[in-house]
Write the structure tokens for this entry.
Amino acid sequence: MDTLRFLLERRADIAAQTAEHLFLVAVSIAIAVVIGVPLGILLTRKPSLATPVIGFANVMQTVPSLALFGFLIPIPLIGGIGNTTAIVALVLYALLPLLRNTYAGIQSVEPSVVEAGRGMGMTDLERLRLIEIPLALPTVLAGVRIATVNAIGLATIAAAVGAGGLGNSILRGLSMVDSRLILAGAVPAAALALAADGLLGRFEKWLGWDR
């Protein structure tokens, strides 16, 4: 009861931090989609690049998140304290599911369907736009869903580099050994992750792609 009262008293701060958190996630996922989806499509046209590029994305996933934030700080232009470093790190973490799912989605399209398009006189670009991308979209969207949920969780660490968000409450709670402050950041972050997963799942169903 005391914890609930504490959270209600801090609702204005929690709302402001939630807005900051959503900003970081939305910007990083938008950038990751703009980079990852076209790059995933390119890899289906240049298979020799697939292994090194997806391998690099895999390596980025293995780097501890706090360490990656630290590595980025001294880098000119993209480093420093603040939102830029956090967004760059979140984009790097989001690239793997987007790359992998886009590549896998395009590759999973039945070759006979693609050949039928070729037989109708479609160019490579037309086959990609009219056949491959529409059929691969469910897999691509699944990658966006995974990347978004992951980014919401990872963005809590962004407070360590001065980027704000719900991680501020968690870090302050840890430093003060105050479980109420930790919950003030952790509970909304978990709720955001569940809401994002649910909304994107409903979007898939709405489009008739749910399997």
About this structure: The longest helix spans residues 11-45.
